[in-house]
Request: fold
Amino acid sequence: MKHLRIIPLLLSLVLLFALAGCGQGSAPASSASSAAAETRTEEEYLAEENRILSANDGLWEKVFASMDKNVTEDVLTSNYGDFLLSAVEKAKDQFTAEEYKTLTSDAEKIREIEKKIAALSPEDAGNANSAVDSSAFPDFKGTDLDGNPVDSSLFAQNAFTVVNFWFNGCKPCVEELDDLNALNQQVKEQGGEVIGINTETLDGNPQGIETAKQLLAATGAGYRNIYFDSGSEAGSFALGIMAFPTTYVFDRSGKVVGEPLLGGIDKEENLAALQKNIDTALAKDAAN
Reply:
């Protein structure tokens, strides 16, 4: 399970070599390596974060399983390494001394990478470091996985919309696809809809889309999945997700209802929390 802000356009989920490892070699190559490091893009830095977390994904899965299920504006705008360090500290009793040391080291490495990302020029950093309004989903124009156009009007067409953020390499994300499909059938009767946003499909990434479609078909999930440009405000919203899966409920105007849910709805307590947000959205819609 890879818990991070992923920019999937240029990023496969193949593990990458660490920057330090790539930079080691003969003396003549060192200056070239330094020059490459100075021109690294945000996508490359995030790929390194992905590699760090993937190397110890079993440990990180335990950390995120025990973390606070509420995502706040402070969390979304803080240094991700600090966020991870805090999560590790709260869960430290679950780990051996060596495991705690490993997790802390990973988080500190990511904190330093985040500092480098923050120092990038706006042209290099794109929109991912911009402040994202987490109280509403940004207006967007996009496409579903079958190539049909879709836009922000989908929110107005539903009494409420459940939006699930996931990616192909996230085991808990894939495990809940059939549950989300069952939920979609249920909420349709209430005027709602479940929408999936797979971060590996942003920008119409062909490989990401093909894999996502295969996973959805294999689990019998037929609800709509959509994508849009990663550089759009909607892309910034999606790329601001700190842990996967994360599920939001939005009202007809695209505003967030309740707190976003971290973790799969295949867990009873998570499904109950999601249902509470759905009930709130229904009550709000009935009152308008």
